[in-house]
Write a sequence for this structure.
């Protein structure tokens, strides 16, 4: 199973196995990783599962959809070119080793 | 035992209040009392992806169990508060024993309004995870037909799941239009077309008179065969505990703009809270994730000694077939509505104004309008009806950069 490494804004690092087809957000929540809040539960209605994707993986991800684009314009922490909503990153085998960094705040 | 914050109710409001207290650095005891045997979970997917079989029960929980341990939130599952003793600042539990509190948060939610007709024991409802599990199973097994009573959000989402599974579904609504309590006639008509286009048999202006084991009898005596009857006819706020404690109740538990009841140590949040709402221009009771989450944060600030009035913009969403419908603001009392985009293309928004001031925006598959409107309503940005209807006006630019988290 591919894994994903989550790095908090203070540098706390957690690596977990993420089943293909599930989202980076839901696995963070299921594993009790702080820093990803997901108030709306992954419906792309809030911007509280914001992460910065390690640039090495950016090109592998699907293009940002319209809904995600709008929500990324409303994140609490600064939006950067590698900002993504983790509820919109659905795991694929080729994402193995994905690294995401969490902002200092989600609201 | 050290008294701290006791939260009654393990829905999203209760959970978010516990989480917000810890985020803000609250160091005392936090106890979250959940009547159900489950840890707090999300309700929105229960009538959407979970019911449609696209999401499993293990992904609806709001937090992992390890979260509660790590953040010292005492999770009490399968128990219920039977009485609040305000003098002694204690809550009594159904399982026996009592808990002291310094502050008490009532996040007791609402319950389904029962269908007031003979045979109602044959009817299923949808609010809890257990009810959703049962309903999903019964939906899959339905052969003859499914009758849904109530054309509100829950009824229509369940109808969409049933049609998505290829079942024959009839929806009965007593009012002359769908979602009458929540949307304008234009949107009611739009959704009627959408649902009929997906093969839903929508019967308006019709009341249910009796539910039998294998059929429903409606006004006029017509009999509709059904091996599954689901009612979604609204909810009743759970006010009994507060009322018995001598707190003021109305359409919910009455609170001030800091979500405080008449007792300075007792707050009410979420579906049960009848609160002053600037967007409603008076008291309101809102049933939504937004209201649960934002009121939870508001009450946590008050308990931390930094009270700020509840002023968050109401928003809501529903998914029905390929339609993502988003609402922001409260449209009640509007005197003018403006359509942006094209209804025929199923990508449009309706902007509601009162005396030229923007009140609310309903968006059908128009995500950008929704987000821009959330920002504009929060910031009080002026928007004229003419601008709203003019697609050359860039709403995103008008709204500017702002967090809506």
């Amino acid at each position: 199973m591919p894994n994903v490494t989550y790095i908090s804004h203070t540098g706390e690092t957690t690596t977990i196995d993420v089943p293909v087809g599930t989202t980076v957000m839901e696995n963070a929540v299921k594993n009790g990783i702080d820093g990803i809040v997901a108030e709306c539960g992954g419906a792309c209605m809030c911007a509280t599962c914001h992460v910065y994707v390690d640039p090495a993986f950016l090109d592998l991800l699907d293009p940002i959809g319209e809904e995600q684009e709008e929500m990324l314009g409303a994140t609490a922490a600064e939006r950067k070119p590698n900002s993504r909503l983790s509820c919109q990153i659905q795991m694929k085998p080729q994402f193995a080793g994905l690294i995401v960094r969490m902002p200092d705040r989600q609201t | 035992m050290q008294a701290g914050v006791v939260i009654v109710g393990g829905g999203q409001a209760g959970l978010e209040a516990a989480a917000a207290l810890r985020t803000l650095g609250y160091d005392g005891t936090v106890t979250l009392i959940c009547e159900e045997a489950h840890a707090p979970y999300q309700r929105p997917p229960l009538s959407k992806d979970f019911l449609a079989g696209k999401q499993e029960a293990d992904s609806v929980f709001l937090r992992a169990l390890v979260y509660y341990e790590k953040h010292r939130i005492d999770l009490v599952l399968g128990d219920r508060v039977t009485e609040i003793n305000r003098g002694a600042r204690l809550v009594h539990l159904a399982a026996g024993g009592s808990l002291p509190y310094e502050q008490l948060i009532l996040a007791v939610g609402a319950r389904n309004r029962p269908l007031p007709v003979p045979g109602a024991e044959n009817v299923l409802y949808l609010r809890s995870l257990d009810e959703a599990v049962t309903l999903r199973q019964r939906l899959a097994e339905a052969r003859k037909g499914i009758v849904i009573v109530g054309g509100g959000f829950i009824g229509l989402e369940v109808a969409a799941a049933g049609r998505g599974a290829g079942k024959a579904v009839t929806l009965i609504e007593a009012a002359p239009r769908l979602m009458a309590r929540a949307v304008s006639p234009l949107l009611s008509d739009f959704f009627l077309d959408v649902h009929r286009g997906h093969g839903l048999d929508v019967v308006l202006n019709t009341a249910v008179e009796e539910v039998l084991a294998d059929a429903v009898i409606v006004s006029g005596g017509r009999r509709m065969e059904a091996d599954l009857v689901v009612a979604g006819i609204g909810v009743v706020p759970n006010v009994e505990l507060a009322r018995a404690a001598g707190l003021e109740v109305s359409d919910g538990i009455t609170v001030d703009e800091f979500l405080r009841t008449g007792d300075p140590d007792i707050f009410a949040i979420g579906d049960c809270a009848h609160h002053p709402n600037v967007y409603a221009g008076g008291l309101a009771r809102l049933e939504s994730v937004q209201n649960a989450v934002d009121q939870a944060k508001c009450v946590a600030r008050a308990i931390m000694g930094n009270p700020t009035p509840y002023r968050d913009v109401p928003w809501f969403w529903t998914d029905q077939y390929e339609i993502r419908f988003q609402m922001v603001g409260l449209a009640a009392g509007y005197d003018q509505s403006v359509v942006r985009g094209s209804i025929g293309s199923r990508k449009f928004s309706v902007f509601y104004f009162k005396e030229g001031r923007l009140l609310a925006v309903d968006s059908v598959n128009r995500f950008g309008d929704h987000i821009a409107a959330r920002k504009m309503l929060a910031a009080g940005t002026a928007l004229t009806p003419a601008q709203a209807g003019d697609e050359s006006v860039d709403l995103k630019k008008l709204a500017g950069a702002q967090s809506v988290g």
Remarks:
- Strands of chain A lie at 3-7, 13-17, 50-53, 83-85, 98-101.
